[in-house]
From TrEMBL, chains A, B:
It comes from Thermoproteota archaeon. Keywords: ATP-binding, Kinase, Magnesium, Metal-binding, Nucleotide-binding, Thiamine biosynthesis, Transferase. Transmembrane segments: none annotated. This is Thiamine-monophosphate kinase. The lineage of its organism: Archaea, Thermoproteota. Substrate binds at D58, E265, W320. It is an enzyme of class 2 (transferase). Pathway: Cofactor biosynthesis; thiamine diphosphate biosynthesis; thiamine diphosphate from thiamine phosphate: step 1/1.
Amino acid sequence: MKAFEIGERKIIDIIWSILEKDNHLLDQVLPHPDDASAIKLNDHYILLKTDMLVRKTDIPKGMRMEKIGSKVIVMNTSDMISKGAKPLAFLYSLGIPRNFSIKKLKSIIIGMSKKAKDYGIKILGGDLGEADDLIISGFLIGISKRIIKRSGANIGDIIATTGRFGNTSASYKILLEGFYAPRNLRRKICKSIYEPNAKINFLSICDYVTSSMDSSDGLAYTLNELSKSSNLCFKIYNIPIAKEAIEFAKLNSLNPEELALYGGEEYEIVFTVKKDKWNEVLEIAKNKKFEIIKIGEVFPGRGVFLVKNSKEIEIPYKGWEHFK
Amino acid sequence: MKAFEIGERKIIDIIWSILEKDNHLLDQVLPHPDDASAIKLNDHYILLKTDMLVRKTDIPKGMRMEKIGSKVIVMNTSDMISKGAKPLAFLYSLGIPRNFSIKKLKSIIIGMSKKAKDYGIKILGGDLGEADDLIISGFLIGISKRIIKRSGANIGDIIATTGRFGNTSASYKILLEGFYAPRNLRRKICKSIYEPNAKINFLSICDYVTSSMDSSDGLAYTLNELSKSSNLCFKIYNIPIAKEAIEFAKLNSLNPEELALYGGEEYEIVFTVKKDKWNEVLEIAKNKKFEIIKIGEVFPGRGVFLVKNSKEIEIPYKGWEHFK
């Protein structure tokens, strides 16, 4: 049997079943699946995250080298902050081909270095090796007094996001499927994949958050994962769609909600907050000048539903998967 | 300019000069170059290490999948323990081709899982992605009250190793250059590269160690790096050569000392100990049933010298380098 025949999620299940036999999963502070791993040390949690970038599969054509470097920081940081942990230190494992240009390599490191500095992360070291293709693995360590899990939502909680969705799907439609967008719109849309950013400001509200997850597998997948983890029903009243994605959808007769739900590589945080704390959270976000958007509410039951014209339509549990 | 035109060490220098500009290297507890990185947290040090394995360049032909998995643990553990830190938790970043066999993947994970368990390390999680070639990046976190640096040796210290050298060089001569060894000898020699092991018992003596380094870049390189880091002269009276390497050298008219000095991928620890503590250290090693070998002594001055028939021959600063 080959990897592509069973897909990423089944492969991960196989890996975890092996690790389980050797008791690696016993007493884990932040058990699989969650956005990061953790160990407890005295009265702190040490959070650990690794995320790998492979040129062929994870880097869109036309992305600048500097932005590739910064993306490795973004990917790892987004998962780390979604657990409420302040990222501290970063290590890289860098694989490059023998004939890789040193100029390109410099740009990658400059991008990595700058973005880490922006987020208050120190790059402490790494490993360099020879590979057939450009591969960058990032390892991030962070610290927190409390961990926000994927589970933890309560009935009545507000469901919210740190931003709007749909531009990454639109970018892939433009770049891979030849869909049309006028130059200016195209530039704005593609910024979502060429210049990704982690919502580091989320840390300022995370004391109020009951559950959360990074949305890089897509909004629909993220909502379903959160709902399943808390064993509760998520009702969505308002899909947070980027205005550029709406304009692009209109131009191409596409459904903007589909673009927003089934994207991926959007480094937004999807989270829940106790209803009576929402205004307080909104106030903090306003003061810190970042957007948070109320999109729904948690109910008893199962599944994720879009409530529209008093009908409830199920939002299916699907998202991006490697090898498929 | 291309990577192979300047080689691994110069590339690393370029990377570090960029990181330096953004202050990533400021106030580092364990500054570059050393075997691992570290941050201080209350009264503990958190040690961090990443090491990457690429099938094409780092895995000898004929190595079993299970041993490839265990090698990733060994590589990272060896560096971690050489700094005196107890390894705690491990994350992997695994890149595999689309058509990679699931059976092989399982074997890799089984090897990784078992070896981690042997060393008391918990595998907490990881990342899985698509790559052209098998690539495994390991990320290890450990903890210690005190860090053993590469610098730290004093005049009069004993220089020692946790084992004997030469078998990995001999293996590569057999596998890559077609040198001869009878079947039984060949099997024993090649075990050094097919079934590497980290000297985890080193942790039991590390309170007495003044400086140390993992020897995976070769014995000559490691001794020179230690001597340079402490700004002292290392005089070697006894090169610790594996008896199989001696036999192999005799059969092929090779110099066994050369095999021992310029190998690599030997996961031994090279370390220094205060002279008056040597017998105590020897006693601990005897009780814990592992070998440590006295090979020389630290003197004022610079460089590494082999003392032989009252002559001093300089041991040059060379070792394995990627891209060259």
